[in-house]
């Protein structure tokens, strides 16, 4: 009986390990497709490419209902799609993104090194406020600071906080956080995303430095 239970436990452990490996591989694929869609796809093709990416990310969420990571990436894709393609559906996309991030937080608030809070913060300062949207600068600051508390040296939390400071008119702080984002350790599995983000950082740094 002991050997039987040990065998069952090992089988379950192997199955769980395989499931984790599968979802990690799926998330990496989605991340890489997002980077190509956002940074390499011509503007004339982005609506179609993002539409396909949203559909596949929805399938990933459906296959992994108890995981936070697919919800985070579907939210990121929807938010990027809304910003890139705009249109009448943009507000609906960012509202759905917010709900997905809130659901992901209930599952695992620390998932993807605080990406839930980076993404929520970026939504709250980039989406228009009432009566058009749900934008809220106080909430943006709260979530972006929370993201930094989880991942203080990460490229994304520092970039978005720097951009938030730039939008607020705090140019010295913007430069400080953007420079920290520029110096962040590279992400070996996400070279295209890093390259695109560095270009965005450099542009924001130019804007902030001109204001000093």
Explain the overall architecture.
The structure is a single chain. The chain is mainly α and 212 residues long. It folds into 2 domains: 2-147, Serine Threonine Protein Phosphatase 5, Tetratricopeptide repeat, CATH 1.25.40.920; 152-212, no CATH class. The chain is built from 9 helices and no strands. Helix 3 (69-85) packs parallel to helix 5 (111-126). The protein is globular.
Tell me, what is the CATH class of the largest domain?
Mainly Alpha
- What count of helical segments does DSSP give? 9
Low-confidence sequence ranges: 10-21
CATH architecture annotation name of the largest domain: Alpha Horseshoe
Write the layout of secondary structure elements.
Elements: H1 2-39, H2 43-63, H3 69-85, H4 90-107, H5 111-126, H6 137-150, H7 155-168, H8 171-182, H9 191-211
Give a quick summary of the entry.
It contains 9 helices and no strands. With 212 residues, it is an all-alpha fold.
Descriptive labels:
212 residues; mainly alpha; Serine Threonine Protein Phosphatase 5, Tetratricopeptide repeat; 2 domains; 9 helices; 81% helix
